[in-house]
Amino acid sequence: MPAVVLVGAQWGDEGKGKATDLLGSRVDYVVKFNGGNNAGHTVVIGDEKYALHLLPSGILSPGVVPVIANGVVVDIDVLFEELDALIARGVDVSRLLVSGSAHVIAGYHRTIDKVTERFLGKRRIGTTGRGIGPAYADKINRVGIRMWDLFDEKILAEKVEGALDQKNHLLVKVYNRRAITVEETVEELLQHAERLKPMVTDTSLVLNRALDEGKTLLFEAGQATMLDVDHGTYPFVTSSSATAGGAVTGSGIGPTRVTGVIGVVKAYTTRVGEGPFPTELFDQWGEYLQKTGGEFGVTTGRARRCGWYDSVITRYASRVNGLTDLVLTKLDVLTGIEKIPVCVAYDVDGVRYDEMPTDQTAFHHAKPIYEELDGWWEDISNARAFADLPVNAQRYVRALEEMSGARISAIGVGPARDATIQVHDLLG
Asked: CB under 8 Å to 365, separation ≥6 — which residues?
């Protein structure tokens, strides 16, 4: 049975929540395998709009078991804020499972995240300040706090003491902040422990048993390929594995169990935060895409940087993820543009690059080489079959498919839940 991984194929905000929701009625489990509450997914159901940050999008699909797996870092306050907000709107959240091996974001992680960014000044990474990076750093440094630790106060206090030993020197002597006590941190972490306990389990075991029983699993990435800590535009990346390989390490299933990898791309490109962005627009077209596409961060509210479609990074994402399918979103935003540029290669100091340069300096100096495609004027928001699209919109999609290294199996033509054209079966 399918174990399908869903990843962003650009810098994030591609519409992964919509793609997950599209498949939600056909899967048994939706698993978030990386990241934390530093990215948001917007799902529109009828007249209702849901903004999710930490929870898997599958929590909105009746009958689906949503799972926060071991590769995620969890801010417990945010977790219960989101759950309570959904409960208030009548959403059943009782099926949620959380990995006991998932690491916990403590208050000191958020503090260090914010003061470090300020300290870096113009060299800042552009983090959300939510403690994600410091929590992952503690995980790698083996001084992290895991979900299991919350249910043994003695062990928790010992681990918090070990984590704060070095951090307080940093906060006091480098950043001129007050020291954080073990007691206040333990109290903060324990306040939701009893409510959390029934949700926490060995999710790796649960997921492998589900596959053995013939269940269908969808693994949902936070962030996106170009923000992956190994394969993204380092150092302007997140602190976890947002590519398909992260689904394996971040959930505890074996690589041979993955049956497909779906990449999500916008019909143009956006980016939030710092870092190079070859097709970024600083003219009226950048403003047009931002306003027409509603390009403001779900989690941060920050305006997204906007640019034309970049087939070079999509080819790269196709390669490093092993994409079997693409979901193309927000095609409707391009309606009314007479000529639509598409980046087909880069120029780096006079040298043409058809594939993405992984050298940081080369990518920083990359200039887009464009081909222009004819646009369309017709409203496409009611199209539900590929043949319903104007001829030029069809040609645009086919051109992107040819350039991008994977077949385009679904096309988003509006924000509504049903505003999607399905070309191929994403679970087939």
From this structure: 348, 349
